[in-house]
Design goal:
By secondary structure, this protein is mainly α. It is built from six helices and two strands; from the N terminus they run H-H-H-H-E-E-H-H.
Length: 163
């Protein structure tokens, strides 16, 4: 597995640190904090690449629509973890930017689906492809099995965090 030893030596001996906290969990906390800080900054950059006026928090919504196609606003709100009012505001802003449109739900004529417009799909696709290419460059020295293992572990972590 890919390892980067840090100067604090936390990865050394397992078990409690002098403060009584398991070193492994201190290391996990530090690395997740750094990852999340970088992810927030990256999300803001990607949002601006999609559209200069796009809020960074809306990028995840666009990525979800790109992956899954049209969705009901309530399903999007549940996935993102926001309330209906926040989702409604974000969707209005995305509609105003021409990135999403509402269309009747073929399964229920009373409901609406939110989907990427052709321009939204093109813009999001370009940004996502550039991000994947950046990952390939940054992790080129990693074995593909390590990348797959990292993805598997992050998927497992996300599953635990959902509960």
């Amino acid at each position: 597995m890919h390892e980067d030893a840090n100067s604090e030596g936390i990865e050394g001996e397992p078990g409690p640190s002098p403060s009584g906290v398991d070193r492994e969990f201190l290391s996990l906390e530090r690395e997740l904090t750094l990852l999340l800080r970088r992810a927030r900054a990256s999300q803001g950059e990607m949002a601006r690449e999609v559209h200069p006026e796009l809020e960074s928090s809306a990028y995840g919504l666009l990525a979800r629509l790109d992956e899954c196609g049209g969705q009901r606003a309530t399903a999007l709100a549940a996935y993102i973890g926001v309330g209906k009012a926040t989702m409604s505001r974000q969707l209005r802003a995305l509609e105003d930017l021409g990135l999403v449109a509402r269309e009747p739900d073929p399964a229920d004529g009373r409901a609406w689906l939110v989907a990427l417009t052709a321009d939204g799909r093109r813009r999001v696709g370009q940004v996502r492809e550039a991000r994947r290419a950046r990952y390939v460059r940054q992790l080129a020295h990693w074995d593909r099995r390590e990348v797959a293992e990292l993805a598997r572990l992050l998927h497992e972590l996300n599953g635990v965090m959902d509960k």
